[in-house]
Amino acid sequence: MKTRNTIIIILLMLGIGLFTVVQGWIIPQQEQDKQRYIMEQQSPLTHDIGSVLKFKSKYMGDFSNFDNLISSLPLNRVDRSYQLYPEQLTAQINYEETVLGIGQERVELGLIYNATAAFALIDNLEGINFNFMDVDYQVKRQDVENWYGTTLSALLVEDTWGAKVQEKLADDEYVLSCSKALLSKSKIQPAS
Question: Between the CA of residue 112 and those of 57, 119, 172, 179, what are the distances in Å?
């Protein structure tokens, strides 16, 4: 009887100890890792392209797939709406924020990355219009393919994506050149 009580007390102490370790260290550490991963997805330099490969599609007309893709790319925290134009093979993303409010460098870096990812993942998407409250940007597939010198789906191999897309975006001069080559920009005229 005494041995049985001792075993029960030891097992109870082990259970309490394990519960404390799980609740006090393991779960908070997992939550920190999850939050760090979410923050990394906000930057084109640290975004995990593997997380969006599930949105690869031959056709741009699937609204749900397009929404899920854009919601998984940088700039996803900015409120937005979409309009798809399947006849022109073009998508329009209307951001409910100004470029000035977000920051031009952050926006242009995000648009280069997001357009490259969208064109690489959606085979028949030919153009994207990114409309902010103060500036509109247009990006064409042909310009992006010319910039990278390859079919965009070939970039989707993780090491290739990292070397040819993400690492180069860390260079400000590269981003400036890329922005001039890929992003057609027009300012919105204020309403009278």
Answer: 20, 11, 13, 7
* In a shared domain, residues 169 and 80: yes
Enter the pTM of the model.
0.81
And the tokens for 162? 């990292």
Is residue 192 a part of any domain in this protein? no
Tokens representing 64 are: 């749900």
Residues 6+ apart with CB under 8 A from 170: 45
98 and 119 inside one domain: yes
How far is the C-alpha of 92 from the C-alpha of 35, rounded, in Å? Answer: 30
Q: What is the mean pLDDT of residues 127-145?
A: 96
Average of per-residue pLDDT values in the chain: 89
Residue 24: which domain range? 1-40
Domain-embedded: residue 149: yes
- The count of domains in the chain is 2
